[in-house]
Amino acid sequence: MMSKYIQVAEDENEESMEVPLEEDGTLLLSTLNAQFPGSCGLKYRNPESGAMRGIRLSDGRLYPPDNEWSNRMYVAVFPKEGNKKKEDLAELSSAAALRIKRDRSIKCSDLIVLGLPWKSVEDDLKKYFSQFGELLMVQVKKDPKTSHSKGFGFIRFADYDAQVKCMAQRHHIDGRWCDVRIPNSKVEAKDNLVNRKVFVGRCTEEMTAEDLRSYFNKFGEVVDVFIPRPFRAFAFVTFSDPEIAQALCGEDHIIKGASVHISNAAPKTYDKQQMDTRKGSLNQQAYSQGGYTHTPWSQGGGRGAAQPHIQGQVPPGVPNNMGMSLGAFQLNPAMIAAAQAMLSGQGGWGPVGMVNQPGGPTPVSGGTPLPPPVPTAVEAQTAQPTQQPQPPQSFGSIGSNQVSTGTVVSAGNNSFLGWGGNQGQEVPPHQSTSPGVGGWGAAPPKQGGGAWS
DNA sequence: GTTGAGCGTT
Question: How many Å from the CA of A226 to C1' of B7?
Answer without folding.
Answer: 33
